[in-house]
What we know:
This protein is mainly alpha-helical. Helices cover 40% and strands 9% of the residues. It folds into 2 domains: 1-345, no CATH class; 437-540, Alpha-Beta Plaits (2-Layer Sandwich), CATH 3.30.70. The protein has helices spanning 8-28, 44-47, 50-60, 70-80, 83-88, 90-103, 120-133, 144-174, 184-197, 209-221, 229-233, 236-244, 264-268, 291-295, 322-339, 363-369, 375-379, 415-419, 430-433, 449-452, 459-463, 503-507; strands spanning 177-178, 181-182, 250-254, 274-275, 280-281, 301-305, 385-387, 400-402, 440-443, 471-479, 485-493, 516-519. The strands form 6 sheets. The chain has a two-stranded antiparallel ribbon. It has a two-stranded antiparallel ribbon with strand order 3-6. A two-stranded antiparallel ribbon has the order 4-5.
Amino acid sequence: MRLPRWSGARTRRLVQLTFLLLFLLAFLATRPIPGREPPGWAKIFFWFDPLLLITTVLAAHSVVAWGLLALITIGVTVVLGRVFCGWLCPLGTVHDIAGRIIRGRKDRPGVNQYSPWQKTKYYVLVGMLAAAVFGGHWITIFDPLVLFYRSLTTALFPVVQWAVEEGSASIYHADPKVGPLRVTTLTEPAYRAFRDHLRVVEKQGFLATAGILGFFVAIVALNAYRRRWWCRYLCPLGALLGLCAWRPFLRRTVDPETCSQCELCGMACHGGAVSNKAQTWRPSECYGCLNCTEDCRRGSLGFRWVWPWRPDKRIVGVNLSRRGILASAIGGVTLLGFFRATPQGRAKVYNPNLIRPPGARPEPEFLARCTACGLCMKVCPTGGLQPCGLEAGWEGLWTPRLVPKIGYCSYDCNRCGLVCPTEAIRPMKLEEKRKVRMGLAFFDITRCIPYAYGRDCMVCEEHCPIPEKAIYFLEVEVVTRDGEVRRIKQPKVDPTKCIGCGVCENVCVFRDRSAIRVTSANEDRHPANLAVPPWEDLPY
């Protein structure tokens, strides 16, 4: 049965915008609200992602139960082709919009022809899946859903927040008037609505934003060269779905009696799936967007249900070379070997600045699960969770770490584990989370006021959230330059109680470099990194 010509592409655009809005709604729904857990459905897009499912199974030999929903995506792709890419993928919608803005509605003849370079994404997929067999999860940072969510969290939304905060502040202080009216009567309600319902942390910012934003802007800007350049050449999820769609049930058909071989369909094809004057079709590159049926002036094109085992000479497969597949697999494993050839990659040393969120699994397993999606960073109420640069090596690029100077781990928050789609951060009840040791605080006595300057300062002790206080004081006598003897309180850290939450470092009166700092020492997840283990665990 042929789909109605009038409904195809227009319906697809409506569905695209709907799913883009749903993705943005799921993004905004993770705003931390005191006393309320983040909604479980906020992870739903990641649960339907088959690349996350397959890579987690290969790398971590485990799967989150809800992640099996990705099998539905695979099943739909086998039957209908790459409709996820053409109809549902929010990043694909962004590329479609960008392409339409940059290049207009139509391209000139020959621009959208298939290029052998489109096989690149399949070889990248093969290489990264080979690395996943050995525990490498790196491919998922290029997953389109992960990439878009991370870009929204760490770059795009903070830019919007900055514009709203700075713009409203400028208008408020300038207080411009338009006749008898004040502009602030319009801007202030809008600002308060943003502050109360959308903003997470005031003046929120993220490390590594330049790299994340630059990468996102680059792949969107490449639509100026080819529409949906990322989808055509590099998208690993698109490659996986392309392999699943090599012989779909729903296939493109051409009526040879009415087709004039005008190539209008090829000019409208954003995946380069149509070639040889519309006579051949590559289902692995077709997004099912129906642009071709909309642009065909003779009504010669359509999509019909066909049994998958029926031979069709007009269908062109992916045709990957065995040599290329083998080289890609070797390349992927070799790349992983380079990542893990460092002392830190072999757990010989531990980076003191690599403080993982509470509940993070041991580093190898954590990296085998973490997608660097940014969900945990989005829900962090203090903004302390930040994307890694190279603190965890290249394999840990853009994965989360706690930066206490920016924001601490709230004693009454366990949201990061609740939203992690692959459980790289274990979901825990609040009582359990409060006992997890992420690191250990220590004093820099060359900067700490009671040690270096002989004056009392109780800020760190006052803010320590541990009920029995991990920071305590000992009274000592000091002599001033005038010879006066003064009794002051010098702070100490009790390593049996400190959980490394970073509150003390965050509130220290020194804003450049705190006099008390937290490192990854004593973290629960690595017994080899227990610098000062609890006394009850010692063998004597």
